[in-house]
Specification:
It is a single chain. The chain has about 130 residues and is α+β, with helices and mostly antiparallel strands. The chain has 2 domains: about 1-35, no CATH class; about 50-130, Thrombin, subunit H (Beta Barrel). The chain is about 20% helix and about 35% strand. The chain contains 2 helices and 7 strands.
């Protein structure tokens, strides 16, 4: 029992010294963990942007990648966000031939609709309006 008391005393002393919190050090740690200069906007809540690539569109929120969308054809001609940036419409085509218009969810990148561009007539489907030929 005496041996246990001798061993546990230094452990208790070490653990208690690690519990002391310096408010200035805590504030410095919080400021450095944000990873951005003070006064700049956070990544979350910024408007989405679409970066076109060969056969893909990358949805960005500031410098953060939200999702990558893979199109039906390699040449992305046009993109348009709809429904308060919850969805994106993408028009793509190959080196020749008809274009494809696709509807994607911006958060997941999943395809929600697809129509050939020559089939877009009279505002139908509504999400593809303005992307027809």
């Amino acid at each position: 029992m005496k041996l246990l008391a001798i061993i546990s005393a230094p452990v208790l002393a070490v653990s208690l010294t690690q519990c002391v919190i310096d408010p200035a050090a805590l504030q410095a740690l919080e400021n450095s963990s944000q990873g951005r200069p003070q006064g700049s906007r956070p990544y979350y809540g910024q408007p989405f942007t679409a970066q076109r690539g060969m056969g893909s569109v990358t949805i960005m929120e500031g410098p953060r990648r939200v999702s990558t969308i893979y199109t039906a054809s390699p040449n992305v001609e046009n993109t348009r966000f709809i429904n308060e940036q919850q969805q994106i419409v993408v028009k793509s085509r190959g080196n020749h031939g008809p274009a494809t218009v696709q509807l994607f969810d911006t958060r997941t990148g999943r395809q929600q609709g697809r129509v050939m561009a020559y089939e877009v007539r009279g505002g139908y489907p509504a999400w593809a309006a303005g992307m027809g030929e």
